Amino acid sequence: MADFERLPPSGISVIIVGAGFAGLTAAIECDRKGHSVILLEKAAELQPLGDIISFGQNSSRFFDKWAGVREELNPLVHKSDSFNFYDWTGRFVTTQSFAEEHRVWGPRVNGHRGEIHQAVLRHARARGIDIRLGCNVVNYFEDADRAGVETDTGERLTADVVLAAEGVRSRGRKLVLGFEDKPQPSGYAVFRTWFPTDELLKNEKTRHLVANGDSHNGWIGKDVHFLVAAIKDGKEISWVCTHRDNGSIEESWQFPGKIEDVLRVVDGWDPVVQELVRLTPPDRLFDYKLVFRDPLPTFVSPKARTALIGDAAHPFLPTSIQGASQAMEDGVVLAACLDRAGGPAGVPEAVRVWERIRYERVHKIQKTGVTTREQWHKADWDAIWKDPQSLHLKREEWILNFDAEADAYARYDAVREQLEKERAQA
Ligand SMILES: Cc1cc2nc3c(=O)[nH]c(=O)nc-3n(C[C@H](O)[C@H](O)[C@H](O)COP(=O)(O)OP(=O)(O)OC[C@H]3O[C@@H](n4cnc5c(N)ncnc54)[C@H](O)[C@@H]3O)c2cc1C
Fold first, then answer.
1. Does Aminoacyl-tRNA synthetase appear among the keywords (predicted)?
2. Phi-psi region of 178 (alpha: psi -120 to 50; beta: other; left: phi over 0)
3. Ligand 1 center–CA 391 separation, angstroms
4. What is the position in ligand 1's atom list of the atom closest to the CA of 117?
């Protein structure tokens, strides 16, 4: 095994399904804690897919624990520390500065999902983690002592615990919930893109967005918001446009969008926005439907040998800006709880403690996605012109200035005792 900081072997074996940020973080953190890990991923090749993704200070701190990752990310991530708000016609409203929170809470990481994912994947590989690509898990099972998975080739693998980190269309949910959990359309979708800025630089209307290095701007309209980030010293740009949508296609990060559909949504808007849309390469535009799922009653299977983590347990709206961060916190906290399990026999208790530590925090943060969307989409503009800062993103210390690993170790014993007490009273 590669020579990285690692606790002595715990004797606990872990199978993780899905190599997104939840699965990769869980794999790296389990490896750090001395658990033995197999990571199964359906894709035959992990390509640098996606566009903009954000990690708050609560998760960007994890990159620092993984030797070399922060250094890889530094040249890739968005550098400005302020955000300019405009109304849909292009009238400037307010600038929100993040400089103070960067100074006190540390840096955020905003960048290309695929590039950041590749950096984390390289670290996982360098650690020598057993990552098996092209393994499509189709079934989960467990008994009191072991949990297991079956792949579409019929291979069966077992371990002390299985973590289902397969994203929004998780099959692990069926074992955990005992039924199929059907997503419903949320009524919203996001047009998304990322592309080089050469053409924007030549155009008078869009030049200012990219000519002075990184910048971050947002236009807010009725039931629509349009956010633009210039990255890599203004050489690349990403924009996302969240709007009403009643389509019923499945959520997919690669479903093509149409420029004319976006232009219809921003009809009558600031000419800067319209020009930016017109200059977007059509083959780089995607249309991501946001689906809604009721909060799950539990993240843990009946015998507590299988846990759902990341989007499989709790998909987030993009307006929470916490989906990837909470996926990472899940993995970090689970690895720490397993560290306190004292060996394979203690796994179910550790998994239940993990769920209790995570459940309330995750659901409280999930709700902020709706609050922010409503704050922007249903804005009372008379009130905003009197108090422009009411448009600012709420930056809450309990979410962002938070060390999930330290918190898990600090609370583990108290939560375990509480669960014991509840069991005795039941
Ligand atoms: C291709 C892709 C592009 C994305 N682009 C963006 C983006 O641009 N911006 C953004 O904010 N978020 C994006 N996301 C979502 C974002 O990464 C997640 O919302 C968040 O990071 C939580 O991650 P997760 O690990 O829980 O889920 P995911 O990131 O969805 O990862 C789940 C992983 O599990 C694998 N998997 C699924 N089913 C199985 C199975 N049966 N067997 C084995 N493996 C399986 C998937 O291939 C995937 O690698 C993207 C996700 C994906 C998969």
1. no
2. left
3. 30
4. 17
Residue labelled with tokens 């103070």: 100
Query: In this structure, are strands 130-132 and 36-40 parallel, antiparallel, or unpaired?
Result: parallel
Is 373 a known active-site residue? no
pLDDT at res. 327: 98
The amino acid at 146:
R
State how far the Cα of 9 lies from the Cα of 7, in Å rounded to an integer.
6
Residue 361: left (phi > 0), alpha (psi -120 to 50), or beta? alpha
CATH 3.30.70.2740 matches 13-79+108-182+296-425 = no
What confidence score (pLDDT) does residue 250 get?
Answer: 66
Q: How far is the CA of 112 from the centre of ligand 1 (A)?
A: 14
The CATH code for residues 184-292 is: 3.30.9.30
373, 319 Cβ separation under 8 angstroms: yes
Which regions in the chain score pLDDT beneath 50? none
* 410 touches ligand 1 (CB under 6 Å): no
